[in-house]
Amino acid sequence: MTRIDLHSHSSVSDGGDAPEEVIGYAVAAGLDVLALTDHDTVGGVRAAAAVLPPGFTLVPGMELSCAYRGSSVHLVSYLFDPDDPELTGELRRVRSDRASRAEEMVRKLQANGVDVTWERVLEIAGAGEAEFADANTIGRPHLARAIVEAGAARDVQDAFDRWIGSGGPAYASRYAIDPVRAVGLVRAAGGVCSLAHPARAEGALNGSVPLELVERMAAAGLGGIEADHPSHNKAQVRQWRGVAADLGVVVTGSSDDHGALTGHRLGARTTAPEAFEELVAPATGVPPITG
């Protein structure tokens, strides 16, 4: 049976491995299809495509940052035209604001006596400033690793809990796209999308994406819901599978792998081949890439 993982990250955003290495880990994990979905960028797709073994399929994609009433909502998006002007403009704005936000958090950390520098955060992110602005995406995990290095947290999770999580002393907000508009942008660019880890929405009142929002996203063209995610417990998986059925969208399953940061878990959750085919059927932007 074809094994499909539709959510993974490389060092182009907040993953621990270069795009080429991600493909190697995916092959070793027994996957046949992998979507590379770095945050707000497709900057790693070309490098990943260059090392595909025969028969292995790469799905170009990204995890699009959205926000709704102060909570984070993420949209894993696939097969859109990366040169679509409106979508590209929004992505540049999102990436630029991520950088500004990270710099603000560095200043807040320094004001609280944490010895973290912007230069070190950029080094951890694997990009010089000019490179970063064009293709790479900085994320709080980069900042968290710098905090751990500085001895101000035990590990990445502790850095979030103590310093940079929502409401933390060094937290700063940033620009993100309205989720319903984001679905429309991806669809207009010829892509398709699935709601990422809906039971893990930072800042949401009960920790989950509100159902009324998901209903409006589905009406705008949302194709799937990532019900099968490592952070979801069994009850949450059942709940979001039910929501997907009620809304007539497919259920996707994904590892949301970030390399060593998440324990190299590619293939920990997978998407059924028939669900994948239904999800990508309307896509007209770019095709999957097969080695």
From TrEMBL:
Polymerase/histidinol phosphatase N-terminal domain location: 4-68
Superkingdom of this protein's organism: Bacteria
CDD domains: PHP_HisPPase_AMP
Residues annotated as transmembrane: none
One function term, GO molecular function aspect: 5'-3' DNA exonuclease activity
Record-given protein name: Polymerase/histidinol phosphatase N-terminal domain-containing protein
Lineage: Bacteria, Bacillati, Actinomycetota, Actinomycetes, Streptosporangiales
